[in-house]
Amino acid sequence: MNNTPLKRWLFLGIMLAITLVLVWKAPPAEQDEALVVNAVQVKREHTLATSVSNQIAFKLNARLSSTATPANLFGIPVIASAEKVIVAKPVIIVPTAPPVPYNFVGKMVENGQTKGFIQQGETLLTVKQGEVLDAQYKVVSIENEGVSILYLPLNTPQTIRAAPHIVQPSTPTDEEIPVE
């Protein structure tokens, strides 16, 4: 069996006991006459020192108030406490759909099904009701004036109209139809 921890604790305990006995038996420290102070003398000197420091502080305050100091010594703006700080309400920005990248060219009814022709750049597309374009636009309806679509990310309705440079063909009337 290993007695090392037991020996260590026994040694520390004996050393502690010896230290306590030596402190207990030690003679009291000698007091120097310079350290013994009369309590009355200390109180009188304390009040004298307090009154002198108050007089010095009063003189410094009077000197500082008489000289002209700039209102804002370090250039830091100071807001008066009487002023009301107006806090603007945050403006909520509602997202809007981007401009439609298509132009309406025309429509065609074939076998009771209406098809619309729209142009994206140089590409001509044929669309029908319910079709989804570029995973962003859904064709809602096809009319004579244009194609109504729904911008899917924001669920915003938009209308594709004819471009100003595209002339819409007019429907011929009975008077305009040539007779052979």
Describe this structure in words.
The structure is a single chain. The protein is α+β, with helices and mostly antiparallel strands. Among the domains are: 37-65; 103-161, SH3 type barrels (Roll), CATH 2.30.30. Helices cover 28% and strands 23% of the residues. It has two helices and seven strands. The protein has helices at residues 4-25, 39-66; strands at residues 103-110, 113-120, 123-128, 132-133, 137-142, 146-151, 156-161. The radius of gyration is 50 Å and the shape is elongated.
Briefly characterize the structure.
The chain is of the alpha+beta class and 180 residues long.
DSSP, total strands: 7
Uncertain stretches of 5 or more adjacent residues: none
> So how many helices?
2
Kindly, what is the distance between the CA atoms of the first and last residues, rounded to a whole number of angstroms?
Answer: 131 Å
The sequence of SSEs as H and E is: HHEEEEEEE
Neighbour order of strands in the largest sheet: 4-5-6-7
Average pLDDT level: 78
CATH class of the domain at 103-161: Mainly Beta
Write down the CATH topology of the domain at 103-161.
SH3 type barrels
Structural class assignment: alpha+beta
Question: Key features?
Answer:
180 residues, alpha+beta, SH3 type barrels, 4-stranded antiparallel sheet, 2 helices, 23% strand
